[in-house]
Amino acid sequence: MSACREQVTGEFNRRFGESPAFILRAPGRVNLIGEHTDYNDGFVFPMAIDRATWIALRPREDRTVHLYSMDHGKETTFDSSRPERGKGWQEYPKGVAWALNEDGYDLKGWEGVTICDVPLGAGLSSSASFELAVARAFACSSGFAWDGPRMALAGQKAENQWVGVNCGIMDQMISAVGQRDHAVLIDCRDLSFRHVPLPPGTSVVVMDTATRRGLVDSAYNERREQCEVAARHFGVKVLRDVSADDFAARESELNDLTRRRARHVITENARTLRAADVMEKGQARSLGRLMNESHDSLRDDFEVTNHELNVIVDIARDMDGCYGARMTGAGFGGCAVALVERSKAKDFAGMVSRQYKDTTGREPNFYICRAEAGAGLE
Questions:
Q1: Which fold has domain 3-194?
Q2: Residue spans per domain, the chain
Q3: Distance, CA of 125 to CA of 329 (rounded, Å)
Q4: pLDDT tens track for 12-67
Q5: Which of 37, 241, 246, 350 has the fewest beta carbons closer than 10 A?
Q6: What are 115-172's pLDDT values in tens digits?
Q7: Which residue intervals of the chain are DSSP H helices?
């Protein structure tokens, strides 16, 4: 039994004097390639990781939700049919309730306990894992069928329109539809997806730089607006619809900043599709090269890395057994990801950690991850 499952079950027993009726989890994610493409209706290639939000709960007959967060040491109570806006962590479950109501679901209440071991603010999507765990809790208490893509859209709606973060659909989708030992190529336009097995003999190592950023106040929304400006110039709604040839023919018409932002998105979409093809063939070295190219584009054209991300990626690339490395997530801090020979992953993590600390003075965290299944009952 995982430590989180034990903790959330024990706390539920202590608070309610009985065992929970349901225990569920929804994972965080790491994106292997395809960054800042999701809100451009493009392609992303994440995998769900073995770190998750857990909820232990029992249904109620009324519509009241009573949830205690072990991470915050606080509880929240709200009417699932009429949540009221406030501030803090509780806006995530309230936002999911609001989004599900908007989509026509008849919600019943529940009471439960939650805990999360997805590092907060690291770019591993703790917020989406929380949203999908709450959606799964409502499915259990209200008795409606689980529809992964539809629940992902509800989670995104909650984050966009209730919490106020203008995120794309990737984080919620992978938390909903992940598959063990596979990454998932997702088309963010129609939410079609295919599971692709990780190359044999490899490990995915998440490298947390110990730098953090807040998405609501960051340059994330600014980058999105810049992409919209570029798309309008080409007469399309999103950059997904600009081909490499079209871009090459007209890029000189754009100012330097807009040109570089558009170039990243257009080339990143092509890299992501190529990555799925080479991974399906088990070509770890080719996948690693594409990851390296992705980071360079995010650093130079999209300008969403920071000093620490660049340092940790450069150190990782020089290590024996590393096929490729790149920043992952929205950027401006958080995590990078490396594809590494499985037999060398532990030594890799130790050596990169020491060199990074010597260079930056920061204490990083490393997670050798396995690909896990999406949101589900335990």
A1: Ribosomal Protein S5; domain 2 (3.30.230)
A2: 3-194
A3: 8
A4: 999 999 999 999 999 999 999 999 999 999 999 999 999 999 999 999 999 999 99
A5: 350
A6: 999 987 677 889 999 999 999 999 999 999 999 999 999 999 999 999 988 778 999 9
A7: 3-16, 91-102, 126-142, 148-157, 170-177, 220-233, 244-250, 256-280, 284-300, 307-317, 345-360
